[in-house]
Amino acid sequence: MSPRDLVYVGHMLDMARKAVSKTRGLSREAYDADENLRLALIHLIQVIGEAARQVSREFSDTHPEVPWAASSACVTKSFTTTLVLTKTSSGKSPR
């Protein structure tokens, strides 16, 4: 295991904790009404995905309980979600 792996996994955990703390006890209506929160959460998910992509194969193989492929796919999914959220909140397609 590389010391870099610990840094990346640490980033993933920090961002996940931030996402949880920002949404704990929040109603769906409050979430839907807060565009800044939604965009912040998308950013946190992107950071998690980028960090997951940087973890070594050795580390990911020794921790199969973590959905590495799904985590790294968050980068693409969150970009798509950003486009959808931008379109639905403004009523227009993003340029």
Protein architecture, described:
The protein has 95 residues and is mainly α. It has five helices and no strands. It has helices at residues 3-23, 28-33, 35-54, 57-62, 68-90. Helices cover 80% and strands 0% of the residues. The N and C termini lie far apart (43 Å). It has one domain (3-90). The longest helix has 23 residues, at 68-90.
Basic shape:
elongated
* Number of discrete domains: 1
Number of strands: 0
Largest sheet properties: none
- The helix-strand sequence is HHHHH
pLDDT averaged over residues:
83
Please describe the topology of this protein:
Blueprint: H1 3-23, H2 28-33, H3 35-54, H4 57-62, H5 68-90
How would you concisely characterize the structure shown here?
This protein is mainly alpha-helical. It has five helices and no strands.
Label this structure with key terms.
elongated; mainly alpha; 95 residues; 80% helix; single chain
